[in-house]
Write a structure and sequence with these properties.
Length: about 280
């Protein structure tokens, strides 16, 4: 299905949670000198103009990154994340927002590998054009799970896989579980960061339960709910299920999300950070 365009949603509250988690994981991997690989399954266009027709039509970024733009963060992860967005907006006006592959490119060293797949015929050339001069980079116009077969395991041992399908079809939940199991068999030492929307709570819990039942160990759930469940807001929140998380991740995200909650949340907003499966 090729109707989804992230340009309508760039910088919203779900992006904030997803990219904070991504930044925390990448910073942990960067502590060691040896190179690692970042693999992005649904990479999108990479960079988004918040002045575009798409972004202005929904204005979702106003409830996410815009509320944090002038915030003086205390959390190191939140500071790092906001600093990366500010790199793309040097005049201190919020005009551009980075997608996950752009965030990775800003953080990775020259020796680190970057891999991404994007199926949309409009977004793919936009994505690829941003990385033409970068070494150790592979951008493919193929299905995310075909990408696992073609590109995993990478040449380096360490790394992270970010999985964030649009979930427009009900089959995408099971497709992700199947794809995750395939990827994990190919590259079990990697960290897997799986984004999911909170729209219908029973569907979310069934999805999480399926991943827990997969037999894959060391799972951490991070979830930020802007609204109470079933409050008529559509996507009321979102989460990240992280497999093989850095041991620092839970503490770092608890601190970061406490601050995010103070800036974009309400009395109905909640945060949960829960270990699901032990090592």
């Amino acid at each position: 299905m090729l109707s989804y365009r992230h340009s309508y949603h760039a910088g919203n509250h779900a992006d904030v949670i997803k990219h904070l988690t991504q930044v925390a994981i990448l910073d942990y991997l960067l502590k060691k000198d040896k190179p690692f690989c970042y693999h992005d399954t649904h990479a999108g266009a990479g960079l988004y103009s918040l002045q575009s027709e798409h972004a202005q039509k929904t204005a979702e970024y106003q409830g996410g990154i815009a509320k944090l733009w002038h915030y003086q963060a205390q959390s190191p992860v939140l500071q790092r994340y906001l600093g990366l967005v500010k790199q793309l907006n040097p005049d201190d006006t919020l005009n551009f927002y980075p997608g996950s592959p752009k965030i990775a490119a800003l953080m990775l060293r020259q020796s680190d590998h970057l891999q991404a797949t994007e199926l949309h015929p409009t977004d793919f050339p936009l994505l690829k054009s941003q990385f033409v001069k970068r070494r150790y980079t592979r951008i493919e116009n193929i299905d995310a799970y075909a990408g696992f077969k073609a590109m995993l395991p990478p040449l380096v041992k360490r790394g992270v896989v970010l999985m964030d399908p649009p979930y427009e079809l009900k089959t995408e939940y099971q497709d992700l579980v199947n794809g995750l199991q395939d990827a994990y068999k190919r590259w079990p030492q990697a960290t897997y960061a799986i984004w999911y929307p909170v729209i219908e709570r029973p569907a979310v819990e069934a999805f999480i339960a399926a991943i827990v039942a997969s037999g894959i160990k060391n799972q951490l759930r991070i979830e930020f709910n802007l609204h109470a469940d079933s409050s008529g807001h559509g996507m009321t929140g979102s989460g990240m299920l992280v497999i093989n998380p850095p041991f620092t991740l839970a503490t770092e995200m608890r601190q970061a999300l406490t601050e995010v909650l103070s800036q974009i949340g309400s009395v109905h907003s909640t945060v949960q950070i829960t270990p699901l499966v032990a090592e």
